[in-house]
Amino acid sequence: MNKPQTIGLCLFIFISACSDRNTPENVAGDFIHNYYQRADQEAAFRLSDSLAAEKLKDEIALVRGARRQGELPSEMPEIIFEKLTQKTDSASKVFFNYRLTIKNTESSSPVRNVIIITELIDGLWKVTNFDEYTE
Questions:
Q1: What are the backbone angles phi and psi of residue 127, rounded to the nearest 5°?
Q2: Domain boundaries defined on the chain
Q3: What is the Cα Rg of the chain in Å?
């Protein structure tokens, strides 16, 4: 294979891999990663719509005074997430239930459950609501 063919093949693989992110499960997982694991509300906002977007817009406004544009917290606890259930409500709405375990230096590791609702909006899967609860 010559160099242009190799570059073309690599580009095709890269574009194919990136295009596979538009699924309910991938969008919910990306949301969890950005919002909970990285505390990046702006990245989570780009994956959201409806009530989720409103919640994040309010939260971004609250942290704006404490952070500079694009700045993320320097130290974050390790957060491990596990998908517990997935329920398809219709062809355009999927619910996810995750368990988040927050690892810290204390002896106990707090556990939270998170509900993520994804919906297909204009051909893109978006998080339309999210909420936390403890057992």
A1: -80, 120
A2: 24-133
A3: 18
CB-based burial, 79-112: b 16+ in 10 Å, e otherwise: bebeeeeeeeeeeeebbbebebebeeeeeeeeeb
User: What is the number of other CB atoms lying within 10 angstroms of the CB of residue 127?
Assistant: 28
Rounded CA-CA distance 80/58 in Å is 26
At the topology level of CATH, where does 24-133 sit?
A: Nuclear Transport Factor 2; Chain: A, (3.10.450)
Separation CA 31–CA 130 (nearest Å): 10
CA distances from 70 to 3, 30, 31, 41, 106 (A): 38, 18, 17, 10, 30
CA torsion through residues 37, 121, 24, 82, sign: positive
Any alpha helices (H) in the chain, and if so which ranges?
3-19, 24-32, 41-46, 50-64
Q: What would the pLDDT profile of 15-24 be if each residue is shown by its tens digit?
A: 545 557 999 9
Summarize pLDDT for 51-77 with one digit per residue, the tens: 999 999 999 998 887 766 556 666 778
